[in-house]
Write a structure and sequence with these properties.
Structural class: alpha/beta
CATH topology of the largest domain: Rossmann fold
CATH architecture of the largest domain: 3-Layer(aba) Sandwich
Number of strands: 15
Strand content: 15-25%
Low-confidence stretches: 383-468
Number of domains: 2
Largest sheet: 8 strands, mixed
Number of helices: 15
Helix content: 25-40%
Distance between the termini: 14 Å
Radius of gyration: 23 Å
Mean pLDDT: 77
Length: 468
């Protein structure tokens, strides 16, 4: 596998990647970066979580000329959360350079955006609505744009932005590089691509080449009612005692409400969604990466591209609507060859989504049922997947905190460390002490329902180059 230098990325950018913990290109980066650096138009189809953002950002950043104070590249994203995520990644790359970046999206002070535009920006990242607003005002000049990126093109069309996207494209120079990245390729996306690209190279990253390590992740569905979903989540946090966990909610409001409930119980939790300021988002992520938080309650787009070492569990508090979203979510765990666990809470009305997910991943997920007494009872074992892996059945209550590999899951008994990964005590459910710290873990069994603290994070392994 070639490294970033061999793909054509210049040494200063490779150094920046290494400083951000990225050393090995993903398949989509390996396929597209040389094409983008050669100024080819590209239509790339790859699932979320495969490193698409870095695949188009690196060539763009390398080709920008800071001495020219006008927009030279434009990235259009369907939501402000994704625009912010891309902007965050771009600013990491641009740190220490003279490249100036601006995120343009709704809900932000227009006058503030205008002042920044007047100061000159080299890279614009925005949503269709606000970009069109600036075009109507005459406050955004796109005549110098040499590269256009349509990110998550299928979602843009799904959300009804086709007309607005075409209006923006018509304001761009005819001679430009056009890059279209999409998880799926419906007819509307193909038509858009045929109209606005020139001799585009089609790149498709197959599922089996995706870095999402499904074979390393134990998947579980726990059947719950809407009424007892929150208690079921809390019970499973106590049962499985994650070292680090991400809990996915469908909306910002639900994420905030759930986080408040977890904090009231004394859990080391925080939230990540689009309503947070950039400074707050960075603060939350810093605490999570340093294991000062145990649980991160997040929305899908806010956590897009999130890569944190040591996430042992993912909880789908709200089932995702799309297969790609499910794969993106559970791909936050089971990374770098480690084992992970993904638990989806499903009510009776989620049956349709669950069937679509199982069809999409060609796998029948293990079933459990949450009982009123807090027990998690097996209802169905998984069938053999397309890759030939089958889960074990046993008819036991899933109360011992063990994965199907037969070892303690995310910490074993309270106070025990995950010794094979070099971490100090990883018992979960950490309660905060009166001084704001965590209490010392206790050694009772999970069935007793007490929450123990987890030990210091100083025993975590040293950082290794993670995929971009």
């Amino acid at each position: 596998m070639p490294n970033f230098l061999e793909l054509g990325v210049q040494a200063p950018w490779v150094k920046t990647l290494k400083e951000n913990g990225i050393a090995v290109p993903t398949p989509v980066q390996e396929e597209t970066i040389p094409l983008l650096l050669a100024d080819r138009d590209v239509i790339a189809r790859a699932r979320t979580g495969t490193g698409k953002t870095l695949a188009f950002l690196l060539p763009i950043m390398q080709k920008l000329d800071p001495s020219r104070p006008f927009p030279q590249a434009l990235i259009i994203a369907p939501t402000r959360e994704l625009a912010l995520q891309i902007t965050e990644e771009a600013r990491k790359l641009a740190h220490g350079t003279e490249i100036r970046i601006l995120a343009v999206y709704g809900g932000q002070d227009v006058d503030k955006q205008l002042r920044k535009l007047e100061g000159g920006r080299h890279l614009i990242i925005g949503t269709p609505g606000r970009l069109n607003d600036h075009l109507r005002r005459g406050t955004l000049e796109l005549g110098g744009v040499k590269t256009l990126v349509l990110d998550e093109a299928d979602q843009m069309l799904h959300m009804g932005f086709l007309d607005e996207v075409e209006t923006i494209i018509q304001a761009l120079p005819y001679k430009r590089q056009t890059l279209l990245f999409s998880a799926t390729m419906p007819a509307e996306v193909k038509q858009l691509a045929s109209f606005y690209t020139r001799d585009a190279v089609d790149v498709t990253i197959k599922v089996e080449n995706s870095p999402v390590p499904l074979k390393h992740i134990r998947q579980l569905v726990v059947e719950v009612s809407d009424r007892n979903k929150q208690q079921a989540l809390i019970s499973m946090i106590e049962t499985y005692r994650p070292y680090l966990a991400i809990v996915f909610c469908r909306t910002k409001r639900r994420a905030s409400t759930l986080n408040s409930a977890l904090l009231e119980l004394g859990l080391a939790s925080d939230e990540l969604h689009g309503d947070l300021s950039q400074a707050k988002r960075e603060q939350v992520m810093k605490r999570f990466r340093e294991a000062k938080l145990q649980i991160l309650v997040a929305t899908d787009v806010a956590a897009r591209g999130l890569d944190v070492e040591g996430v042992t569990h993912v909880f789908n508090y709200d089932i995702p609507h799309e297969v790609d979203s499910y794969i993106h979510r559970i791909g936050r765990t089971g990374r770098a060859g480690e084992k992970g666990m993904a638990i989806t809470l499903a009510s009776p009305r989620d049956k349709g989504e669950l069937q679509r997910i199982e069809q999409g991943i060609s796998y029948t997920i293990e079933r459990r049922r949450y009982e009123k007494d807090g027990a998690i009872v097996e209802t169905r074992s998984p069938s053999r997947s397309a890759s030939g892996h089958a889960g074990k059945s046993g008819g036991r209550k899933d109360q011992d905190g063990r994965g199907k590999e037969g070892r303690p899951s995310a910490g074993g008994r309270r106070g025990e460390g995950r010794g094979n990964q070099g971490r100090a005590g990883s018992g979960g459910g950490a309660k905060r002490g009166a001084s704001g710290g965590r209490s010392q873990g206790r050694s009772e069994s999970p069935a007793q329902g007490s929450r123990g603290g987890r030990g210091s994070s100083t025993g975590r392994r040293g950082g290794s180059g993670r995929r971009g």
